[in-house]
Specification:
Elements (H helix, E strand, L loop, with lengths): L2 E13 L4 E13 L3 E5 L6 H8 L7 E6 L2 E2 L5 H7 L1 E4 L11 H6 L5 H10 L15 H14 L4 E5 L7 H18 L2 E6 L10 E6 L2 E4 L1
Parallel strand pairs: 3-8, 3-9, 6-7, 7-8
Antiparallel strand pairs: 1-2, 1-4, 4-5, 9-10
Helix pairs in contact: 4-5
Bound molecules: adenosine-5'-diphosphate and magnesium ion (MG).
Magnesium ion binds next to helix 1.
């Protein structure tokens, strides 16, 4: 089976005048196509650092990230983001000058898909509102909808339920996991809430500057 995601000997530290904080050392990791990964760990353990590197939002100090066997780096990451990867960011990055519908239609003009997602996530009544008029929980669900608009091969979600109540959290995880199964795509979700672990093919946590199975 081929890999959708691969990291090879990744090193990542944050350097400040006071200290050097090493988050990953010689990290090798593979995710096969069509599989889902749950990345669990407490706040500050390195989940976002890992996800930012595999989306091209940040670069490792050394080592490689491969998506679909192609090298990902900051200069080509926007090509991947347009087509192959759907990302749910912790900061939502919605465009303030566009309403919710237009924010979503940037990714695809399929109105049927748009209405399905807005209905399922219970945000259809904010379709014509602007990002500054909606709550963080609503923004998070818009971000989930946006990630699925163009039917990506790989979805990467950084704590996609952090602003949501239990009912909406369950819906979001259900949607992402079912999409992955239905279209045989791949999924990476980080969370500090372990309760969703069993819905995924694999679960990992971050320990000793590596990803380990948990
Ligand atoms: P998580 O997403 O699991 O909460 P992060 O990946 O955001 O964890 O952070 C991992 C560690 O790296 C934390 O100790 C955090 O303080 C530190 N860190 C994250 N981003 C930066 C940065 N830009 N500069 C310095 N330290 C950072
Ligand atoms: Mg984080």
């Amino acid at each position: 089976m081929s890999n959708i995601l691969q990291t090879q000997k990744i090193n990542k530290s944050y350097v400040s005048p006071v200290e050097t904080l090493t988050v990953f050392r010689d990290l090798d990791f593979n995710l096969e196509k069509g599989k889902s990964l749950f990345l669990f760990g407490p706040s500050g353990c390195g989940k976002s650092t890992f996800l930012n590197m595999i989306t091209g939002l940040d670069e490792p100090d050394s080592g490689k990230v491969l998506i679909n066997n192609k090298n990902l780096n900051i200069s080509n990451s926007s090509n991947f983001l347009k087509s192959d990867i759907g990302i749910i960011f912790q900061d939502h990055y919605l465009l303030n000058e566009l309403n919710i519908k237009d924010n979503l239609m940037i990714k695809s003009e399929e109105e049927e898909q748009l209405d399905f997602l807005l209905n399922f996530l219970d945000i259809k009544d904010i379709k014509l509102k602007f990002p500054y008029q909606i709550s963080n929980g609503q923004k998070q669900r818009v971000c989930v909808a946006r990630s699925l608009m163009n039917k990506p091969q790989l979805i990467i979600a950084d704590e996609p339920t952090s602003y949501l109540d239990k009912v909406n959290s369950d819906k979001v995880i259900d949607l992402l996991v079912n999409y992955t199964k239905q279209f045989n795509t791949s999924l990476v979700v980080s969370s500090h809430d372990i309760s969703y672990k069993n819905l995924f093919d694999f679960s990992y946590t971050i320990k000793d500057k590596k990803l380990i199975k948990c």
